[in-house]
Each structure stands twice: as C-alpha cells, then as structure tokens.
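2024-03-11 09:14:02 INFO worker-7 job=invfold-0412 stage=load source=structure_tokens
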C-alpha cells in the first residue's frame, strides 16, 4: 500500500520533475505494474506539456461580425467615433473626410453586411450600400478587411478608402452634384403660358472686381439705386468672402438701371426665373418663387436644399410639390486637390491584403469618372381654369377702384374660375377668393330654397310685414321699403323686392338654412388647392342670429367667389363648386339641388333682373340678386354692396366693401360680359 501512496497521482508533484532533467522511465515491470503504468502516464503528460507550451484561445468569430455591423452603421451615419481602427483612428477619419467632403453631406440610405470570408486572424466582409434619391437609387458593394490585434485581443478595421466605394483610393474622392429640375409652367384654360421661365438679371456686388476698401461704398450706392435697405445690404456684403457675388435684387429684363455701370463692382448677371408676364399679373393669386429659406430647407424632410426655387405664397406655394419637380444627381470619382499625377493619368489601386480575394482587386479606371447619374424630373405643368385675357382686363379695371372691391367670374357649367381679382395690393391676400364679408340680401337666394323645400312654390304667399319681433328685437325692412309691397305676397315678389321680414317670418331652423346654402355651394369647406373661403352659414341656436342670418346678416359671411358659385349653381341646375386648378374639381357633399328647385330659383332670380332690385343689370345678366350688409365704424353706418348673377356663359359676383352706387359696377360688367 505504501508504494501506491508514493506513486499515486496525488503524490506526483513531490517528484519535482523538470523539463530540463526529465529522464526516460526505466523501472522494470513487476508485480506492481499498474502503479508503474500510472506513473508513466503522469510523466508523459508532463513531457507533452513542456514540449507544446501554453494553449491560447483562437480569435472569436463574433468579434469581426460585430465589428462589420459597427462599420456598416458608421458608413450610414457618417459617425466613426468609437469604431475600432487598426492604426491611427484620427488618420482614418481624415481619410474619410477627404474622400467624402464633396458629397455635400449625402450619406448612404442603407448599409448592410453581406458575405464575410474569414482567414485565421483576417476577414473580408462585403458591404452592400444604397443611396435613395427619391426618383432613383444608387447601389454597389464595397469590401472591408478586419485584422485580429494580438496585443488588444480584439478585431480592428484595416482602413482603406475603398471601404467607402470600391473605386476610391488615397488620391481620389467622391463628388456629388445635385442637378436642379426645371420648375413647371402655369398655363390658362387655353394652354397659354401664364408663368414660364422669363429673362431676369441678378443685380449685386462682385467683390472680386473691387478692392476690399471699396466694398462698403459700392454696396450702399447700389442699395440706394435699386431701393433696398442700404445698411442691411452693406452688412451682408461685408460678411461675405472676398470671392463672393452678393445678390441685391433680381430685376426683369428692361428694369436694370443704367447707372449701375457707374458703381464699382456692381454687375447684372443674366438668368431666368418662372414669372408671370408682368409683376402685377394675378400676383395675389399666383404668388411668387424665390430661393429656399433656411426654414424651407429645415421643414422639407431633405427634399429641399439651399438654392432650390420654392413657392413663397399663393398657388406657387400651395402647389409647390407639383411645380418643383425632383432633382437629378451625379456622383463622380475625381482627384483630391493636389493629387492629380503628372503625365498620363492612371488610377492607382489599393494593395490587397493577404486575405483579399481576387474578386476584390480594383481595376484602374480613367479619372474623372461618372459612377452614377440620375436625370432630374422637371416639375409638372399646372393648368388653371383662368382665361388669361379676361384676367388681364379685370385687373386693369380694378386698378381704377379705390378701397376694397372684389370680383369673381366663373364658368356656369364647370365652376372653373375665369377671372378673379380685388382692388389694390392687399398684402398678398386674394380677397376675392378668401374675403369674409356679410353677403346681405344675396343670401335670400338660399333662404328662398329653404322655403321651396317646405313645399312652397314661387307663387306661394309669404308674410312681408312692415316689421317683425324676434325674441324682443324689432327687425325691419330696408329704409324706404314701399308700403304697397307689405302684406302677404308671392315668394317670388319677396325676393324681387328683397323683403327682409318675409324671410325672417319663415323662422327657418339653423339646419334648414345651412342645408339650403350648402346645396348652392355655400358654407361647406372644399379643398381646391389654394386658399379659398366658401362662406359660412353657422348653425346658431340664437333666434335673433338665425333671423338675421336669413337675410344675410347675423353671422353669415361670404367671398365673391362663393357668391358667384351660388349663382352658377342656380344657372346650371346643380351644385357647382368654384375651382381654379383644371384637374382638381371637388364634388359636392351637400344635399343635391333638384331640377325642379333649380327651375324655380331661375324663375325668381330672372324676375329680380326683369323688374326688381337688379333691373339695372339687364344688359349683362339673365338672373341675379343684389345685397347690402350694414356695419358700423364708430357712430357711422356703412354697408357692403353686392351683386351676384349669371347669363348663359358665366356667373359673376362683385362686392364693394364700403358701399357706393350700383353704377360703379357697370364698367366691370362691361369688361367681363360685354
């Protein structure tokens, strides 16, 4: 038993066996042979350990896979902070910036890791990259090498420019050029160009043409000449670089003052912009175009860049996405500054590592080289229902009006707006389509329809009293209303003579009046692609407000566009919704106007022109209705004056904010309907 203890495995360490003095085991086999064999096994194990040295773990494959994912994320975000680089990380970052600074911030939309080919302490991974430009995409596969760093016991990226794109080298870079699309034209109903590219001149100071000390004086002189803020422009010129051209103003052809030649450094550079035929033509309707502001860029979700033309207001703004188009893109491989070799150029190729497969070796290409090209998609043409000649005539007539006068003319069958304008420049607002004014007695057309829907006819009698009391409030007819017209009268005559009390006495519910107005296109909001107000006939429960609403006062409001639509609905025999964009015709959501109702309203509106308050408009109208809506300015009483009506071709509505005589409207009718 003592021999077993001496040679047992637990006693083996006391033998102090060293690799240097280990000797062959020569003990003769005896009856103790199991113990001998066990000792031999221990000795051989020690000898084997001494011969091979300590065992080290193999590099983990998880390391290069995770690193490949990190690299893909860095390429997609442009953020390489924290990425494990083999060598100097700052040098790698500088390489990345040198190769991509002319990409102007354009990054891959997606980068995914493809096939990975490991080879011991090296690995090659494919990186599938894609750039999405909206109307097309650019996709390619680059490759990256990863190396296991013994000292750090981790994987590192072996940085090469070809990681960004397979054709890139230390001498080349990627250049992204964004090609602006051509903005779409705006044309009238006959296809005649309203807005198209027309010649203009960009007037400003070219700082390369003057010494620095001259810039301030030239800037102020030019600002005073073209009538812009001198202090602001001088500050802008001072803040610009020595090679800058600083725009002061853009002028149409023929508007550049001759005195510009006397100002050192002042130049006028010819170009073109989408413009109407004159600066004033349909200005409040069409709006304007200018280079994108910082706010435009920030709110565009990447679709708009600095320098793009965008709509500022009006149709140019509301239809900007249609008119603007989609930019094109070109990605070019070119030399970095100072890197172009002398003599015949040839693209050097990156030296492949020992783990690189033959398929990843670059083939030299001619520099510069276009790697990707996507043509711009020009903006679409926008066709309007406007008649350009009628619009020009109406605007010319409106220049002769003082105060606020609005007018709209629409096609009675389609509802397309033929011409619309207001007097003066109302801070970019087109009041003829957006104005909110009490319509007065013109709304009695809708009240008449409410009566008809109760089963009355134009010959049915209604009470036209001298006055009527509603919730303690006395309501009267307009001053001078003839006593001979007071009493029970046919509904037709109540409209002909514009009896207020006849409609108040109807005691229409809020729903009755609102529904009748909606059937004539009034009081329901429709999206017609630009700012427009279709009027309001609110569902008030106040009996006094409901009474006033019935004759177009109270809380009722209307624009001349909505008023013209009301007359067009009567003329067409169906609900007509005014619209301006040819292919954006809204559908009525109201109770349909029946043929019988339309015929009865036509009969009544024709009588108004034949022998009623609109008889002065016989030369131009078949049917119509006048209106007056009082309002106070201090102690003085003023009134909006209205006329709405139709003939075979068109419906028209005109409003003067501060009254005047009906005769002032005659020249406008002559202009549009003669």
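2024-03-11 09:14:09 INFO worker-7 stage=emit residues=674
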């Amino acid at each position: 038993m003592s021999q077993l203890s001496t040679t047992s495995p637990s006693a083996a360490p006391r033998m102090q066996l060293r690799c240097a003095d280990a000797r062959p085991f020569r003990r003769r086999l005896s009856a103790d042979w199991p113990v001998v064999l066990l000792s031999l096994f221990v000795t051989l194990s020690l000898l084997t350990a001494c011969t091979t040295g300590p065992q080290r773990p193999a590099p983990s494959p998880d390391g290069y896979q995770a690193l490949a994912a990190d690299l893909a994320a860095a390429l997609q975000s442009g953020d390489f902070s924290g990425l494990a680089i083999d060598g100097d990380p700052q040098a790698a970052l500088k390489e990345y910036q040198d190769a991509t600074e002319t990409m102007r911030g354009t990054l891959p939309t997606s980068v995914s890791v493809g096939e990975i080919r490991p080879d011991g302490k090296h690995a090659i991974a494919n990186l599938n990259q894609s750039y999405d430009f909206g109307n097309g995409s650019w996709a390619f596969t680059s490759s990256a090498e990863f190396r296991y760093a013994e000292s750090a016991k981790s994987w590192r990226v072996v940085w090469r420019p070809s990681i960004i794109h397979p054709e890139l080298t230390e001498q080349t870079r990627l250049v992204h050029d964004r090609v602006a699309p051509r903005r779409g034209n705006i044309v009238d109903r006959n296809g005649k160009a309203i807005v198209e590219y027309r010649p203009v001149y960009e007037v400003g100071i070219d700082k390369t043409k003057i010494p620095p000390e001259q810039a301030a004086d030239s800037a102020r002189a030019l600002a005073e000449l073209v009538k812009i803020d001198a202090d602001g422009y001088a500050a802008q010129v001072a803040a610009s670089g020595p090679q800058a051209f600083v725009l002061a103003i853009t002028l149409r052809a023929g508007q550049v003052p001759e005195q510009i030649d006397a100002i050192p450094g002042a130049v006028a550079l010819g170009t073109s912009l989408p413009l109407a035929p004159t600066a004033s033509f349909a200005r409040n309707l069409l709006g304007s175009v200018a280079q994108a502001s910082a706010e435009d860029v920030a709110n565009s979700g990447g679709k708009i860049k600095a320098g793009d033309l965008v709509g500022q207001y009006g149709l140019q703004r509301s239809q900007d996405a249609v008119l603007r188009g989609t930019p094109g893109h070109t990605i070019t491989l070119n030399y970095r500054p100072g890197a172009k070799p002398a003599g015949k150029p040839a693209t050097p190729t990156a030296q492949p590592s020992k783990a690189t497969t033959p398929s990843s070796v670059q083939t030299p290409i001619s520099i510069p080289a276009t790697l990707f090209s996507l043509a711009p998609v020009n903006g679409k043409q926008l066709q309007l229902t406007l008649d350009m000649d009628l619009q020009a005539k109406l605007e010319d007539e409106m220049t002769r009006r003082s105060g606020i006068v609005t007018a709209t003319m629409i096609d009675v069958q389609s509802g397309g707006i033929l011409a619309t304008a207001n007097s003066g420049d109302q801070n970019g607002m087109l009041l003829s389509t957006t104005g909110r004014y009490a319509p007065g007695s013109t709304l009695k057309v809708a009240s008449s329809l409410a009566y008809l829907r109760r089963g009355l006819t134009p010959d049915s009698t209604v009470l036209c009293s001298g006055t009527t009391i509603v919730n303690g409030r006395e309501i009267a007819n307009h001053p001078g209303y003839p006593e001979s017209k007071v009493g029970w009268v046919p509904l037709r005559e109540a409209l002909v003579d514009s009896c207020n009390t006849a409609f108040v006495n109807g005691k229409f519910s809020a729903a009755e009046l609102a529904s009748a107005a909606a059937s004539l296109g009034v009081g329901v909001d429709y999206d017609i692609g630009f700012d427009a107000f279709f009027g309001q006939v609110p569902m008030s429960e106040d009996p006094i407000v409901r009474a006033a609403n019935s004759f177009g006062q109270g809380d009722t409001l209307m624009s001349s566009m909505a008023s013209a639509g009301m007359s067009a609905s009567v003329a067409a025999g169906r609900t007509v919704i005014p619209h301006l964009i040819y292919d954006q015709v809204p559908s009525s959501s109201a109770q349909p106007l029946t043929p019988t109702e339309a015929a009865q309203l036509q009969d009544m509106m024709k009588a108004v022109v034949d022998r009623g308050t609109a008889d002065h408009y016989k030369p131009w109208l078949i049917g119509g209705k006048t209106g007056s809506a009082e309002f106070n300015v201090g102690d003085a009483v003023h009134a909006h004056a209205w006329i709405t009506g139709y003939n075979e071709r068109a419906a028209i509505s005109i409003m003067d904010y501060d009254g005047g005589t009906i005769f002032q409207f005659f020249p406008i009718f002559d202009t549009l309907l003669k």
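2024-03-11 09:14:09 INFO worker-7 stage=report msg="Residues 1-56, 345-363 have pLDDT under 50 and may be disordered."
2024-03-11 09:14:10 INFO worker-7 job finished
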